[in-house]
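Quick one: structure tokens for this chain, please?
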Amino acid sequence: MQKRFLQIITTAAVILTLSLPTVASANSSWHWVTMTNPSHLLLPLIIITLIIEITAIYRIPKAESLLRTVCAVTGANLLSFAMPFFIPWIGNLMSPSIYLYDLQNTIDYTPFFIVGAAYLLTTLFVEVPVVYFALRRHVRQSTNRLLFAVIVSNTATTAIVALAEHIFCYGEW
């Protein structure tokens, strides 16, 4: 069963990597062509993500407490959202102040979509252990169903967010 999970995650990562490429050109300036950039989509996508993940994680393994599920999923999502912004600090822990920049300017002028295959891996790396260990003793069915629900719901919501970003936001060099 674990081999099947690995195959599903690997296939999803490959599909996202191949279908959502980012093209970069040197010595030029990035700007968003559309009036919408990824930060404008953030609130509705957070709400959709939380609804999907909480519903799946509460219903599939039959969690005992909706409040505990909401807290675990919300906390895990906050951690996984914050993680990419702390990654630059990991390489340079001695002087993190050089990375303290305005988040809005970063989103406006940096040539990236917030969500892609790397973000899916980061999300799974952060959210799976947080939600699993918070809820493993509080589900009525197998913990394998809990693990399945966390992985599938996170993969699905990450794909939805990536798709929304690529449909509504376009930038160029």
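Confidence is low (pLDDT under 50) at residues 93-101.
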